[in-house]
Structure formats: structure tokens, C-alpha cells
Amino acid sequence: MASSTTPLSDQVQRFLFDDTAVRGELVQLHQSYQEVLIRHNYPPAIEKLLGELLAAVALLTATVKLEGTLTLEARGKGEVSLLMAECNTGEQGGDQLRAIARYQGEPTGQTLTELLQGGQLVITLDPYEGNRYQGIVALDQDTLTACLEGYFASSEQLPTRLWLAADSKGAGGLLLQRLPDDARNKDPDAWVRIGHLAATITTEELLHLEQHDLLHRLFHEEALRIFEPNTLKFGCTCSRQRIANALASLGEEELNEALKEQGKLTTECHFCNTSYIFTKDDLPELLNEAIVTPPPNARLH
Ligand SMILES: [Zn+2]
């Protein structure tokens, strides 16, 4: 391992090519990805898929310029039943990422197909303002990249190319998208040409080469315009109140019974491993919070 490398930051970088209809995003995740991994003891193949899913969720959030929550949820029929990654924007200090996997035993598969054995990928956009949107794509391709490219081709009608990679240290993704032609597009060959340049990217570069160096390496012959990067970090949206709301939905009788049997109720957030403990003294608080809870779309600010 090279010892001279400086720590790379977790960020997503938007860019476009002047006088073309081509734009793109580049993301690299190190610390936030490690924060997901250290909380669980995932097999390497699942780590890799979760890394790719995290990179994808960051890219998609940047691509649609979402202010809200974007979730990618792969529900499988094989050894892995769930892979989920989520990006929440609007937090101070950067957008928050979290992810989780559910699986049985010691998975033996290595690829998306082997581990999930088909199923569905659900894309959910939940903006702070406006309507929730959900798209569903079949997990019928060998890679997450191919499934997502298929989704863009069929649902968004925007030609999109995607590169995703992850190893035990980092996750990365590159996305190119061709926007509908307009007067600003003076270079109709750009999509194919830039696609060829992007396709020369190696996994090592995508994961570990500094972002400006990487964009220069790929596109130095093009009129590339790079925007301010957006910082990403690990973060969880769980809270005592959210857990209390979920418990309160069980009803007073059931909660009373459970508390009598167990003395206390302990609930752990599967994303961040935070434990929330409720005793019988908390029961009025639990039931009361459920009543004053605003509807899911209401925001305090
Ligand atoms: Zn949590």
C-alpha cells in the first residue's frame, strides 16, 4: 500500500462539457463508506455491493439535484434479501449517507445475480417539497450498473452511462448523461466521444485517484467545466422520537404487556447501531409523542 497518499475526501463533483448536451457526476466515498462497514461484519462481496449502492445513491441525488431523501433498495430472492442505501440532503456539513444489508448465513455468491437471485430495485425520491416519486427496475442484469442504466433508458428517457466500483477501502462512481438536444449543443458527436474517454477509467482510478486528477486524466482534451463539489458524510436519521412513534403504533396494551414481561424495551437502529431504551416510566412519553407527531411531510423549518 502506498504510504504517501493523502486522505481523499468524500464528495460528489458535478461537471459538464461546454457546448454539448453532456453532463456528469463523479463521486468517491472513503470515510462515510468505512463508517457503514465498521458497524457490521459484512462479507466482502456484500461490502462491495453496498459500496456500489452508496456511490449510486450519491450520484443519483446529485443528478436529479434533489433536496430531500433518495433511497435505493434492492430486494432479492437469494442469500441477500435486502441492500439499501440512502442519501439525505440539507444537513449541515454535508449530505448524509447510510446503508444496510440483510442476508442469511454466510453468503457464497459474489455478484449481484448470485447473491440476490433476481428481485427488484426500488428508487424512491422523497423531496422536502413536492411529491414522492418511486421507480422500480427488475434486478435482471449481472451488475447494479447495468440495472441502473436500464432504468434510465426506460424511465427517464435520458441516455445514461454509469461506472461503479468498491473495494474494502473505498467506493466510487462516474455518471454521464446526455440531455435533450437544444441550441447550446453545437457538438453532436460529443456523447459518443466523451463516452469512449470515460470508458478508459480503471477501478483503481475511480476509487483512489484524486477527483480533479481523475477528471483531467479522462477529459483533458475536452472543454470541461467543473462545479463546486458537494461533501458527503455518514449520518443516520434515526431518533428517540422516531423509535417512540414506531413503538407507540403497537398500542398501549401491547406495550404494557411487553414492559411487564421484559422490564424495558430496547430497540436498536440497524443502520447506526444506536440503542434506544424505554422503561415503563417512558410509557406516557411514548404514547403522548405519538399523538403530537406531525404528519410525515410536515417540517419544522
Ligand atoms: Zn440510526
Describe the protein in words.
- This protein has 301 residues and is of the alpha+beta class.
- It folds into two domains: 11-234, Hsp33 domain, CATH 3.55.30; 240-292, CBS domain Like.
- It has ten helices and 13 strands.
- The strands form two sheets. Strands 1, 2, 3, 4, 5, 6, 7, 8, 9, 10 and 11 form an eleven-stranded mixed sheet that branches.
- The longest helix is centred in the N-terminal third of the chain and has 20 residues, at 44-63.
- Mean pLDDT is 89; it is low at 291-301.
- The structure holds zinc ion.
- Zinc ion is lined by residues 236, 238, 269, 271-272, 274.
The CATH topology annotation of the largest domain reads as Hsp33 domain
Helix content: 25-40%
What kind of sheet is the major sheet? 11 strands, mixed
Please state the average pLDDT score: 89
Could you say which small molecules are bound to this protein? Answer: zinc ion
Tell me the overall shape: elongated
Query: Can you identify the CATH superfamily of the largest domain?
Result: Hsp33 domain
Discrete helix count: 10
Q: Using DSSP, what is the number of strands? A: 13
What is the string of SSEs from the N terminus onward? EEHHEEEHEEHEEHHHEEHHEEH
How many separate structural domains? Answer: 2
